[in-house]
Amino acid sequence: HGHQIAKHIQCTTDDVLKVEHGSLYPALHRLEQRGWIVSKWELGKDRNREFKYYRLTSAGKRQCIAEESKWRQLTSAIAQIMWPAKES
User: Fold this and answer.
1) How far is 47 from 63, CA to CA, in rounded Å?
2) Interval 54-83 mean pLDDT
3) Phi, psi angles (nearest 5°) of residue 62
4) Residue 68, pLDDT score
5) Which of 28, 48, 66, 79 is the most buried (most CB within 10 A)?
């Protein structure tokens, strides 16, 4: 669910990345509108409240792969600028 997604991002990046809920939920809605994720409401473990859970669709997985490729190209280009090969 959304809160857990934000918490996971923060924990796995040692608090470097913090996603505010005001940014996360609109982004999740956009991903859902594009068909890259789907959501469903489920009762929490305590059965006292519902949470909206998200998962990637097949199209979302393909998009993730495409975005990862773009990211690798971008970071490679930046690395070439930051640390150019030494001329011999």
Assistant:
1) 34
2) 97
3) -65, -40
4) 97
5) 28
54 with 1: CB under 8 angstroms?
yes
Distance CA 15, CA 8 (A): 10
| 3 state DSSP class of 72 | helix
pLDDT in tens, 44-63: 888 789 999 999 999 999 99
For residue 27, count other CB atoms closer than 10 A to its CB: 13
CA angle 28, 34, 39 (to 5 degrees): 45
Q: Do 61 and 38 meet the contact criterion of CB atoms below 8 Å apart?
A: no
Alpha-carbon distance of 71 to 48, in angstroms, equals 41
DSSP at 18: -
